[in-house]
């Protein structure tokens, strides 16, 4: 059994279209277009599983970097243990196609997921500068203050 990653799919590509095209190289056991679980929209990649390794190799050799359904697609072997690193390189789910991720697990990515910054964490003061000392109250003695006319005046 051999599973292929299909990247760069058009947003409108359906599973039936994907299956029909890849059946040209041999019997397809499963064809899946991965969809966003919130919107239901295609995420632009999918998987095809063949029963015969030779059929998968023919599909890779013929379909990689070829236009399909209006877009140039990438076809490669999917990993069996999750996504691989690198931009645009994908792997399989490791637990089969599709299906929601178990509770507490992040959905699978394809090498370019970046953790979201914590927007509410206090920002550290860098480069050796001390934090500001005075926020309210009277200005320290000996500082310049702007008068109403715009001319500086010694305090």
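^ Assign residues to that structure.
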């Amino acid at each position: 059994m051999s599973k292929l990653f299909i990247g760069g799919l058009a947003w409108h590509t359906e599973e039936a279209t994907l299956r029909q095209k890849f059946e040209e190289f041999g019997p397809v056991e499963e064809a899946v277009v991965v969809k966003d679980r919130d919107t239901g929209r295609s995420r632009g990649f999918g998987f095809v599983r063949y029963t015969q390794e030779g059929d998968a190799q023919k599909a890779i050799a013929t379909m990689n970097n070829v236009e399909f359904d209006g877009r140039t697609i990438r076809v490669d072997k999917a990993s069996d243990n999750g996504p691989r690193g690198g931009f645009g390189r994908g792997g399989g789910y490791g637990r089969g196609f599709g299906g929601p991720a178990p509770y507490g697990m992040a959905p699978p990515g394809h090498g370019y997921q970046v953790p979201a910054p914590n927007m509410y964490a206090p920002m550290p003061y860098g480069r050796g500068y001390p934090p500001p000392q005075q926020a309210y109250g009277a200005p320290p003695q000996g500082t310049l203050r702007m008068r109403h006319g715009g001319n500086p005046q010694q305090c």
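Strands lie at 2-7, 28-35, 42-50, 66-68, 71-77, 144-146, 152-154.
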